[in-house]
Amino acid sequence: MKVLDARSAELFAQAQEVMPGGVSSPVRAFKAVGGTPRFIARAQGAYLWDADGNRLLDYVGSWGPMILGHNHPEVVAAIQEALQEGLSYGAPTEREIALARLVREAYPMADLVRFVSSGTEATMSALRLARGYTGRELIVKFRGNYHGHADSLLVQAGSGLLTGSGGTARSAPSSAGVPQALAELTLVADYNDPEGLGVLFERHGEQIAAVIFEPVVGNAGVLAPTPAFLEALHRLTRQYGALLIADEVMTGFRLAKGGAVERLGLKPDLICWGKILGGGLPVGAYGGRAEIMQQVAPLGPVYQAGTLSGNPLAMAAGIATLKTLFQDPPYARLEAYGKALEEGLQEVFAEAGRPICLNRVGSMVTAFFREGPVETYAQAVESDTEAFKRFFHGLLRQGVYWPPSQFEAAFFSTAHGEQELAFTLEAAQLAVRGL
Ligand code: KE4
What we know:
The protein is of the alpha/beta class. It has two domains: 6-67 and 330-433, Aspartate Aminotransferase, domain 1; 73-327, Type I PLP-dependent aspartate aminotransferase-like (Major domain) (Aspartate Aminotransferase, domain 2, 3-Layer(aba) Sandwich), CATH 3.40.640. Helices cover 37% and strands 15% of the residues. The protein has helices at residues 6-18, 73-83, 94-106, 119-134, 180-183, 194-204, 227-240, 259-264, 290-293, 312-327, 331-351, 377-380, 385-397, 418-433, and strands spanning 40-44, 47-50, 55-58, 112-116, 138-142, 155-156, 172-173, 186-189, 208-213, 243-247, 270-273, 284-288, 357-361, 364-368, 400-401, 410-411. The strands form four sheets. It has a seven-stranded mixed beta sheet with strand order 4-12-11-10-9-5-8, sandwiched between helices. Strands 1-2-3-15 form a four-stranded mixed beta sheet. A three-stranded antiparallel beta sheet has the order 13-14-16, with helices on one face. Strand 9 (208-213), helix 7 and strand 10 (243-247) form a beta-alpha-beta unit. It is globular. The two termini are 20 Å apart. Ligand KE4 binds next to helix 4.
């Protein structure tokens, strides 16, 4: 039996000598599924090739950015053109105007947009802006929602649960190094628990600067918001004068041209973007109506800055990506692929008599290894992660690269077609047998 990952194993050993865990981001280390992470050598369309030369059908897509598939010719050409003019200037450029205008075309409520270099920077800056604009200190996030690694967002529900469902009295850091005093300024509620959110606002509403949420969750695995939850989010933030921040880093430009805001008819005060906005290069952004965004330096007192913000190559990649998406919106095709994938996987698991709950919104999907429904974080974490691990490796052995965690979203792209669908379902059939 050919060792599929000999070179990856060698590289992983070398990587661990020079980088913590041998990776630049924890989820890449395969800790949730075990085994050796595949070191990727190159990518094209829907495929990756790893260091051992194995071709892998990609359902990670760089965790969201690669909605057009890898190395889309329009994006590559745009970067090559920008490259001729230099790499980075630390000065304003025309490309930033062009990309900001494209963002505003998709999100008309965003009067002003500020570019940064990651989703983390986008959400961190949006929180600081909300605190500066409202003069309040508390923020609210939801269990199972991930917004990047800013200190105020690495916070979990504390032990002291408030009366009523979901609301918590004291939060605690979810990472070492986050001060307890800071963590307590972040209240943690349950996603899809409007009552619990109401309890939180009754107790703290006047001190809450903002509520930040994933409009469709990807980071607990995929969770869709209930209408009652969305209604409560909008009503309570309006009622108490808190800002509503939609974290569209993952969903932006993926679920529709105008992301979840368009698809679900949301009315947030601030929006955060990342991933697809850079087309694979480092771009994040935050934006909203002028009266809020005008608080941002150099116009206003809320400071935020970045050496590589608005980087010309990254802007070029983002412009080409959004223009390609806007010129020929792929959302109906992505929906069709997603529906066929979902139905095909349902069939595979039904034939094998295995419980599965497929949560899919557009082109982001999670197969929870448990009976459905899965509408909350608490339900998601009851999944059979051991079965998921075996499924993951079964797929990988067949050349299908699924996200290496039960609590992540899988993504597919415009480069995924009939052939990829058939290949995926065949691999899933074999992987399920091996469960
Ligand atoms: P980045 O700082 O990783 O660009 O973005 C943080 C972020 C913010 N908001 C949402 C909704 C996100 O999903 C993310 C990052 N997503 C993870 C995947 N679950 C990135 C993968 C990783 O951490 O390596």
